Here is the input.
Amino acid sequence: MKISKRLQTLTPKGDDGWGVYYKAMQMIDDGVELLNMTIGEHDIGTDPVILEEMHRAALGGHTGYAAVPGIEPLRRAVAERTQRMTGVETGPENVLITPGGQAGLFAAHMLVCDPGDKALFIDPYYVTYPGTIRAAGAQQVAVKARPETGFQPGAADIDAAADGAVSLLINTPNNPTGAVYTRKTLDGIAQVCKANDMWVISDEVYDSQVWTGSHLSPRALPAMAERSLVVGSLSKSHAMTGSRLGWIIGPKDAIAAAANLSTHTTYGVPGYIQDAGLFGLSLGAEYEARIAAPFRRRRDLVRGLVAQQSFISSIPSDGAMYVMLDIRPTGLSATEFCLKLLEEAHVATLPADSFGTAAAGHIRLAMTLPDDQLVRAVSRLLEFATAVRQAA
Ligand code: PMP
Here is the structure.
């Protein structure tokens, strides 16, 4: 039977830089002990205190259909968190609860793109971005951010692609680069979005993981709230990846339209998950800082190791759970480097080819190993790079 072209072409054919990942998974299945820095997920599970609340809520009967846009107290708690972090007045009517940030990214594009519309995104990018835009029926156009600027996207580059575009998807703190967009970057983005009458879809799922400076949302810039859709999630801030609890924040009428989409797609998020998320949010900013702390500490460990040599350099990782290394001096492509490192040193990383074309010659480390293993993995990686140099 026929399968729609839209789904057949959702993701490109070929391994798209993910061959190294599949190989690492195969090696793990075969019993090889790897130091695995491929995937961005905490090395801890969801806190038992949050799970107990989920259990209590389920046993208490919150197992029927829940309010489709999200239960009022959770929408209010998300609004309060956003207002506290950004200073922008936000109420429950500005918040739609979604099954994770990913569903929020899809709903945001469905909300603003008509079939065939041009939707911009920044390369390097989180792996689902092009497919998400295509799934919404839009035409995805990448704008490159460059290593020379620490992967801060340039306003002129966005402007050059903006003619006829309806939206720009950005991500700060950034996966895969660890960049946190500066005020200058965001001012430039705001100016281009206003000049071209574009929405900004701002993926802020790592907003609790900022190591240098502070998180700035484009929604907080002058006259930007009316054209901003912010995507957030408890996946990273509360180590709740498997609970699938996220949101979109935006203008009231846009949120109402997105809620109508939820009625026809997800029909909302289970009530006991929302109750657990509400409890998680009630633990406050200090709790979020505690969940983020290992990544800050590990970022410093990685930086310390990289600073002990001058051959391989790192992109300043100012946030999120990733560090990017520039391995161009080895003369290997990122994919060659990652494959050899995997086979010869049993350290698994991802080539930047998995995240677009802008970061060619870079590799991404997810700092999701316990500290001692992380130090061992990065030390092995740097020794491996030095050996490649000596052999050349
Ligand atoms: N955006 C970015 C940049 C991510 O890294 C992720 C998850 N890795 C997501 C969105 C989706 O997160 P979730 O659906 O778990 O909220």
Observations:
- The pocket of 4'-deoxy-4'-aminopyridoxal-5'-phosphate is lined by residues 40, 100-102, 126, 171, 175, 203, 205, 233, 235, 241, 246 (CB under 6 Å).
- The chain has two domains: 5-45+292-391, 63-285.
